[in-house]
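(Protein data)
===
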Amino acid sequence: MSVERDGAYSTLTIDNSIKENKLNRTDSAFLSALVYGVLERQLTLDYIIKQYSKIPLRKIELRTRIILRLGVLQLLFMDKVPESAAVNESVILAKKHKLTKSSGFINGVLRSITRAEVKYTLPDIKKDKEYFYSVKYSCPRELVALWLKAYGESVTEDILKNLSGRPQLTARVNTLKTSPDELINKLEAEGVQAEKSDIVENALVLKNTGSIDRLKTYKNGELYIQDAASQLCVKALDTQPHDIMLDVCAAPGGKSFAAAQRMKNKGKIYSFDIYEHKLNLINKTANNLGIDIIQTDIRDAEKDNRELPLADKVLCDVPCSGLGVLSRKPEIRYKKDLLNPELPELQYRILCNNARFTAYGGTLVYSTCTLNPAENIDNVKRFLVENPEFKPLKLELGVERVIDEPENVLTLFPNGKTDGFFIAAFTREKL
C-alpha cells in the first residue's frame, strides 16, 4: 500500500517494517519475497486476476486488489505456500482491514484459481510480441518496445528475465585499510560468505549478510556496498596517485571513494552535488573509510558556470531513468514518466558543461545506470560531433560486449552479477 499509494521506496519500506515488527530472519525473508514478488509481477498478476474476476480491474478497490495480488502470487508463483493457506490468509487479511464484502469476492477468485486445470494463458506471441513479453515479465509495453527496437529479441528477453529476483550483493574492498583475502577471513568470522568478484578486482560478492550496518568490518570502513558495474565505471577512469579528479554528480559518493582508493589517497577529488545533506553523507563516509583527498561542494552540474581546475579525470555520472536497476527497485517500472523525453537533453548539457574542465590528454567518462539509447549512445555520438577536440578512448575493462558498439562504449546488461549500466570514455586533444 505504501509503495503504490504513497510512492514509498520498496527497500526502505520493507526494512522499516522488519524493524518495527521485530521480525526474525525467516519471517523477514518471507515478507520480502511477498512484497518484491507482487511488485515484480504486478502486470502479470493483474492479467490473471482479470481472467477470473467479473468486476473490471479498475473498479476493484486498491486494498482488495493488493490482497488478490498477494493471494495469486502465493498460489501460482511460490511453491512452499499451501493453497489452503494462501486462500485463507487472504480472506483473513481482508476481514482484518474491514473489507467484509470483499472477503467473499477474494475467496471466490482464489478458489476458482485452485480449481482450474489451466491456471492462466499468456497473450499470443505471434499476434502481439510486445504484449506477450509485457505480460509474461510484468514490464510496461513501452519498455519492451524500446528494448526490442534497440537490442533485439534475444537480449531483450535476457533483460526481462533478470528483472525478477534479487541481484547479487557486491562490496568494494577498501584497499586503504585491508586486502580482499584479509577481508574475506574477517567476514567469515562475522558469519558472512564472501568470494572475489570475477568481474572487477578488489570487489567481493557477499551472501548471508543480514543487515550490513551490523557488521564490524562495515563499521570500521573496510568495505562499502557498490555494484560491480559502478566499480567498472571507476576502472574506466583509471585514476592514478596524484591525479586531480572531478566527480560532478557525486552523491552518494561510491565512485569518488573507489577512485580515491585507486589513487592511494594521494591527489585531489572534487565531489559535487546539489544537495547539502548528500554532501554531508559523502564527508561522513569518506572519513570512516580513511579518505582525506575528497573536497565536497554544492554545485549544479547543469548550470553552474564557475571555473574549476583542469582535471586529469572527469566523471559525469548523470541523473537518468534508472532502467538498469529495475531489479533493485521493481516499483520504478510502473512510473508514468519513465521515458522522460527531456532527460537526454539535461544529461547532454551536464556533459558539455563539465567536459571543458578535462585537461588536455585527460580522460572524460560519461555514465548512466539506464538502458535507453537516447540517454546513452545517442548522447555520445552527438557529443563527439559537436566537440571535435574530444576523441573516443578505447575501453579495456575485461568484460565481453553483448551488443555491437564502438570501442569507447560499454553497455552492461543486468545478468544477476551486475546492474544494467552504460559507460563511455573520451580523451581531450588540442586541435
